[in-house]
Amino acid sequence: MKILILTIGSRGDVQPYVALGKGLKAAGHEVTLATCERFREFIEDHGLTYGHISDDLMKIVDSDEGKALMEDTTNIVRTVSAMIRMRRQVAPLQRQAIEDSWAVAQEFMPELVIFHPKAVLGPAIGEKLGIPCILASPIPMIVPTGEFPCVGFADLGLGGWYNRLGYSIVNFFIKVSAGKDVRAWREATNTPVKRVNLDYLADQDGNTIPALHAISEHVLPRPGDWPRTAIMSGYWFLDAEDDWRPSRELSDFLSGGSPPIYVGFGSMAGRNPERLAAAVIGALQKTGQRGLLASGWGGLSASDLPDNVFMIDQAPHDWLFPQVAAVVHHGGAGSTAAGLRAGKPTLVCPFFADQPFWGKTVRRLGAGPEPIPQKQVTADKLANVFDQLIYNERMRERAAAIGERLRSEDGVATAVSFVENIAERTAQPTKAA
Question: Where is the Glycosyltransferase family 28 N-terminal domain (predicted)?
């Protein structure tokens, strides 16, 4: 079966889909993964065929304005406001991403489409080619449930009606923000224009679109009110290649004392990474702990660091995290999953979007303390929490137990089986484009 995977976003929006693509390829399927150009080499290095989507949309996120807006999107109201303010800049870039997605589909002619929520053309490609499509997401924010609030909405304890309302609002704004561009694509490709041109929950015939979530039920139980076509497969981990080796300096640091606390914020360090770096180093000095800092600290170099702190550009989380005492990060879905699988106590310092949600989830599991929003990070606050991460035995036991459960799962295998079952149930002759 020929499978097209569409995803747009940061490294965290791409890496799990590479893992899924490799699993599908190992199962005998032909896979093309289409995403932003910056990830071409990463995808091809993992043996998958790359499909081009312009990098321009991500350049907006990388800009100073994009960073400023992201730092202010700590709840759904601010998120929507930020989307509206950026609409003029984003709209032409989104249209280009739509055109690129369709060009890849025309060239590859897939038999099934798997799409990230940011890849808005996914359902329309399925409709145009007469093939099944599957929503695939690392965040539970599209399929409604009354059991917990949608990502970005505060838990006000108002019950199922309020929780479901959040999902309705999110799906409404998806249609508003991208529906016009999908409609324009329909007109340009002689695809029938409908009253609703973009819907992640149902196709144009009213059939429920299957939804695959790269989340473990040990972390977030599957809602009982979801349709049977929506599952949580477990995480899609992309483990390090067998031939990966750390630098001698990193190996020497790890073996040269007690396990360090890992601190890294992925591709996000905000507009003032120097402030965060100073707070982290100050907290390590106050507590006497060793620290391992991932890159992204605004020009900070190794010569600026005290002896108990070491900086790395990157290292595979599945190799590194088992060797540290605790992990501190921004709360991206992938980083959260990696820290929990390693069985390490976790502190989340969220910037925006789903990150506060994962921070509170870690706290609910007992695997970490209350999250500290990145704007509130200080050396004193971190020092207090670092002591909890190291010395709170109950927290460490809970983290270890969750890690053991996650290591027993194979989320990719479950996802591959789900995709194959959907394809089998919906098999039909391919229509001409």
Answer: 3-140
